[in-house]
UniProtKB/TrEMBL annotation:
Residues 122-223 form the Phosphatidic acid phosphatase type 2/haloperoxidase domain. It comes from the Bacteria. This is Phosphatase PAP2 family protein. SMART domains: acidPPc. It comes from Myroides pelagicus. InterPro entries: PAP2/HPO, PAP2/HPO_sf.
Amino acid sequence: MKLNLLTTILLLVYCISHGQPLTQAAHQTNVSLEKQTINFNLKEKKSFFEQDAVKIALVPTIFFGASATVWNSRKDVKEVRNRYIPTFKYKFDDYMQYTPAAITFGLKAVGVKGRNNIKRTTISYAASMAVMAVLVNGLKYTTKVERPDGTSKNSFPSGHTAMAFANATFMDKEYGLVNPAYSIGGYGLATLTGVGRSLNNRHWTSDVLAGAGIGILSTQLAYFFVDKIYGNKGDNLSILSKYEGNTNPSFLSIKLGVTSGLESLVETEESESLNKLGWEAGLEGAYFFTKNWGLGGQIMVASFPFSENKITPQETPGLEAKVLSESMGYMTASIGPYYAIHFSEKWNLMLKALGGYSIGADGTVTLKALSGESYIPELVDGKVQIASYTPENVFQFTGGMALTYNLTDNLGATIYSDFNHSMSKITYELNDISIDQGQIPTNTVKGPFNYLSAGVRLTAYF
């Protein structure tokens, strides 16, 4: 009743001030109210990937899943590290983890406008550090995983990596809207920190991946709750709204896949291939000048294991043994053009043609005794090294395609397939124990080395 009376009074005032009949004004008011009611009832529902919980948890969940996936193979990754850079020891990761946060607060100090003013920025940062510290230390002293270097049992997860990615997400939150270069720089420094922890033999790969997920999650949660307290998404969003993002599909990504050789690197005397499915992992990115054309490259590590070949040496007929060869390992850096085909806003296909330099890792061939009573003095724990090999560094061509489904405007899930070609040259050097009289101790094998790779890629657009 009171509402009807108030409406009537307002209509009378409106009619007197505008010289409009009461019935016409009432009709327009009812129509306006009906439109507002209709608009309210037809409020657009958010899609799954636009839900706050999904935005906060999606990327961390992918990192946690990757950590679980590589858990059982983390020692294999350590083996690759030890073969390429066994003496690597540089402490840049101790300082680099703090760099994104230091730059963010430095920009605030010199007056560069970001998402929030300094007070709210400090509160959000303090909250993210608190969440990160609880998660990291709670897991470290509960799981008690031994470090790769054996110094302590608090390896999982990597605190340095968690700190680095929390700080990178902090920089992205504050200045990603101003310029995507801030986000790229922040996450690039965080990635180098994580890689450094693995190269310095302080953390397993699973530790680093879990640390990255925790760091991102900590800052995401902090900003979510602080935004709820303030009742908005930022202090300066009205100022930052004039900045337009890059609509071209420029991206950075993490890749993980399997490899299959099309030619045999090693064969038995019966020409039976000893190649098995291998693996590859690395980083890939490209900057697109238009919606279709871009320039980019990748840094990849690939490993090609061999099957175990059982033999009965002619010199020792009572001995059954098997030949073990270390996986053939390559690290490749390449660059070239990219072409993108857009099927819709959600789907795109990228083609690439890259050329680069491939560095091979030295390896050994070992004979392991399985059974028999023959005495071989060179055996140590049932094994003896019979040869070693050295791949020559070569040029490698890579062509491939990648199909991406865009989960959000900034993140996509990708499946890829690549063809890789190089002219390999591998030199084998036989140990004294395996050399017959008059036999040449070295042998060089030349020929094309082609392999296919396929896998998944987490793609972040900028």
